[in-house]
Amino acid sequence: xxxLIDTHHHFLDPQAHRYPWLNDPGxxxxxxxxxxxxxxxxxxxDYARDTAGVNLxxxxxxxxxxxxxxxxxxxxxxxxxxxxxxxxxVAIGQAWLDRPDAAAMLEQLAAFDFVRGVRQKPRANAxxxxxxxxxxxxAWLQGYARLGPLGLxxxxxxxxWHLQEAARVAADFPGTRIVINHAGMPSDRSEEGLRSWxxxxxxxxxxxxxxxxxxxxxxxxxxxxLDANRRVxxxxxxxxxxxxxxxxxxxxxxxxxxxxxxxxxxxxxCVRDFSAEEQAKLFVENARRIYRIGVDRRS
Length: 299
What we know:
This protein has one domain: Metal-dependent hydrolases (TIM Barrel), CATH 3.20.20.140. 36% of the residues lie in helices and 13% in strands. An eight-stranded parallel sheet has the order 1-2-3-4-5-6-7-8. Strand 3, helix 4 and strand 4 form a beta-alpha-beta unit. The longest helix is centred in the first third of the chain and has 15 residues. The chain is globular and about 50 Å long.
């Protein structure tokens, strides 16, 4: 049975709390397509059902785009789940780094002993080119500068064409870790698209304070195809090396594409020729180290 720490999943309850992308009418579809069937609670019992075929050693809840007016509410909700059942092991909170109250919000998030970092999807263009994205804004950078001193890292979810901006941030703040979400979002699987994506990843990999999660690599229409994803998985590992890559489910969102078991069987198939030590790093040990699972966050 495969042992793993799942570095990216979401617990949510849209019946009890507000998630604009699930609760509010007129929201655009997810990049996989219609996501209306996600508008239901997904709690530890549901996650236990989906992960029954693996030896789950820990997990990381990543903010689920909870009501932005109350980012602490989500961490209180996650804290209550941890008290009842022990999962998630740690969490990533929501933080709007360019808001006037960013300093206070970050201090409150850092006060939760299970919070390891924050995520805010910075302003981005829908396609390559165009104006610079949100990571160039002075207010955003001022908020970002507060992360390192608070012991928090930054979870980056942005299209690959904004990774050059992120590389400058990584260089300017070498003491703050960045964890790239969803393999840098290789949405364009054409040869030209993948070549540009790889170049953008290489710019980030040049900075030792950047790690990456291999997750969220389904395709529009709800497909998780091993023949299409094997190349993505192996390219990420080649660029970043086995010490800075982690696997993750992105559940329940990626239930739109495949079962939890199929996703991790796919990952395992991609790295079957790696050594046992390398596989242990990719599935467990890098996650334990980067997310400081089992240690005091402030140590």
